[in-house]
Fold:
Amino acid sequence: MFQTPSGGTPRRETVPFAFVAEADHFRSNVTPPPRERLSASQIVGRTLLGLTVVAGLAGSLIFGMPSLQSGDSGPRQQQSEASDNR
Structure:
């Protein structure tokens, strides 16, 4: 954003929009109020929610692993009972 002319001092690049160029003039020196501390019940609730989500993901991974494993016996062919009775 800064260009250095041959003189060596940086100069600001021109901006086509005036509100972008003047944004530095409107900075606030007012600090926001401090955040409220969480109560013990809120901390416990958020912890339980996080543990529930993690347990659900782990459970779905554990129960889904058998269906993701490939069988060693190769592709299975299904035959109907009607084809056995000629």
About this structure: Residues 60 and 66 are 11 Å apart (CA to CA). Strands lie at 2-3, 11-12.
